[in-house]
Sequence to fold (162 residues):
Amino acid sequence: MKRLLVLSIALVLLTLALSACASADDGAVRQVVTDEDRAVESTLDAQSTAASIDSYFATPAEGANDTGLGNTLGALRALLNDHVSGASRVELTNFRITQVEVHSEANLARVQYQVDLTIVHGDQNGSATVTQDLALLKTRTRGWRISGGDAPQLSNVVGQLP
Fold:
């Protein structure tokens, strides 16, 4: 009877420890994506440079996928460079993380987010809701970083997006 009680207590403690690790990773993953969004907004508000977002992304040497980085960091750099050059006015609003899946044992995560986007480009303007799945990996030295993702999907498109 005592042995069963000790095993039960050990199992409960192990379960609590594992869920605490998963919860910590979930929070860390959410924080990286949220901080990256804030860095993008800061760049759009001319408070920082487009290079300030690089630290939120893993490098190919850390295991980031080149195609996924093109869909995420590359597309974001193009948008920010267009904005910084004065060719477009870009506004992001209503950023929200809609789904998080963390696989702590594999050091991988997936985050889906949505953000409302408005772009004014010359006499063209438009708005849309952008949804994108991001892949994250836990690096050895920098913790969780965005390592790629799917191409952004647009919905609720109003007007023309350049």
Observations:
- Strands lie at 89-103, 108-121, 124-139, 143-149, 153-159.
- Helices lie at 2-44, 66-84.
- Residues 101 and 110 are 5 Å apart (CA to CA).
